[in-house]
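Comment thread on ticket #2218

A.B. wrote:
> Attaching the input chain for the structure job we discussed in standup.
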Amino acid sequence: MNTVKTKIVPLRGTIKVPGDKSISHRSIMLGSVAKGKTIVHGLLTGDDCLHTIECFRQMGVHIDRDGEYVEIEGKGIEALTEPSNVLDVGNSGTTIRLMLGILSSLPFHTVILGDQSIAKRPMDRVVNPLRAMGAKIDGRRGGKSAPLSVRGGALTGIHYVSPVASAQIKSAILFAGLFAEGETSVLEPEASRDHTERMIQAFGGNVEVNGLKRTIHGKQQLEGTTITVPGDISSAAFFLVAGSIIPGSRITIQNVGVNPTRSGILDTLREMGADIAIDHLQDQVMEPYADITVTASSLKAVTIGGEIIPRLIDEIPILALAATQAEGTTIIKDAAELKVKETNRIDTVVEELKKMGANIEATEDGMKIHGRSALHGAHVSSHGDHRIGMMLAIASCLTQEKVEIQDKEAITVSYPGFFQQLNSLR
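C.D. wrote:
> Ran it. Output below, let me know if you need it in another format.
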């Protein structure tokens, strides 16, 4: 955003955000291993999900895409064929980790890799339990890093106690468990997002939910279905915060997913004093969604930690920006998982917001933000991380000087039309 501003402009209007990224990935994956036609409405057409589509096309799945409308001709997992080339996930950690669960079940060899960011991200958290099920996975650093080589085949169910609450770990194991012999279960220390459990059931499968434990019985056959993907609350989060902290703003975001395992951003903003209204709630078994209206208000500092962290882990960068405009000192803790995202988001958030005048410091498992800070123009960088890029774009709305964002193209991973929508609210 290379414009010079003389005043801060309120954001006002009604928008729809792109389809939920987590649900979009899973709809493609499950539709590809199910039998029968799957139709997906509202699919996110960002780079990450396009990589997931291409991976399954390389294994023989016929997928037609016309804008946000996708049709998948599923013939069951047994119909997948060995790809003639490596599978490239681009920047998508969700794609590589969840697909490892499926690839481990296939009776052929695959190699899967991604970009430089993926090469740095830990894969052993998924590789180790899949190896325990019988998968033969190798790669850099003994399989801790991509590229990874997978020789799949007959798997046996395991009962896994996860050291962290991670939907990616849980989902990879449940996907493998779908096609394994016997029973597979995952026990988490805290609840992570439950899209996988909901969607397996939408495709006719069964996942038993008992507290923090998820159990699946192997050799299930999924059936094609119709999926409507709600708006992504992680994308909506940037406008929820913008509407809260930019004076005079009022924004309505339509058809946003409000799954309880993902809506920690709403709870936290309300605790900070944000004016948020929920309307037209459609509470479906598949995924609940609603319209959300946010009106600018005065925010106060809070402590963010504990069991709410898995419910807002992707929203912490934009919450850190909100905290710079809140009265008092906000503490974010128990969020060491941020270190293994597209970037080390603790370090990058602190580094970039400091350039704009924020009083913020990194801690071992989060950050401490002293508000309120008057932000100013600067030359900043997304570090190739879409959420850092969008956070900085919203931060630029609070300055009267020029803000230049390097590598803002990274935003297309999850929100191709982000800048157009931002500008439509001015």
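A.B. wrote:
> Thanks. Noting for the ticket: The CA atoms of residues 104 and 152 lie 4 Å apart.
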